[in-house]
Amino acid sequence: MSQTQNLIATLKRLLKAEGITYARVAAHLALSEATVKRQFSLQSFSLQTLEAICDLLRIELAELAQAAARNQPELHKLSPAQEKELVADPGRLLTAVCVLNHWSAARIVETYKISQAQCVAYLVQLDRLGLIHLMPENRVKLRIARDFAWLPDGPIQHFFQDRIQSDFLNGSFDRPGQQLRFHHAMLTAEASARLQQRMQRLLREFAELHEDSKNAPDAQRYGTSLLMAVKPWEPQVFEALRRHPDARPFAGAG
Fold it and tell me: Phi, psi at residue 46, to the nearest 5°?
């Protein structure tokens, strides 16, 4: 739902709650009822008309905007086509990642080779996708739910997976703020399920720490990546030494 659609839907909801009919709105505006119905249908109102209808509701225009913002559904995920649209332009994807990490447009332009005009164009596209609400002076309000995530096995995940081995894992993990551990164990399907539940809790805590850090000065916040993975697996060099392939189905499958 676009901002205009949400604003008009909120206006209609408030009129209905107050028992105000189109006929009454028309009389208040000194217009015909047919004209008012057409304006609602086409979602075409002048600012003066909106203010006049707000007067009828005994609210300020700003209150209508605030009610519309509260009514705007939060985004939990994008569609595959939307993620593909982001990946198609690295600058657009970078801008999306930055705003999701609470960067301002000014900081994006200052930090990366993205012009002011390009940044604004990217922000307009992100607004259209529903990730953000672009406000005056290029300020941004996120419209994502707390559990927002990229699609599993989707275009964004593929984009980053392609770079995990070359960019992420090939680097060192011996500096402050870095840690890499690898452990192997023999687990039952039930134990594996408990482990994955704890991984989900850790991911939620990671998201909470991100929120806790968003108001800190930019100089004190660092882009931080967390990689977790678990699966029944044996290195190929070990698998090659087996007398017979391990063809057992995983007990927890299905």
Answer: -80, 160
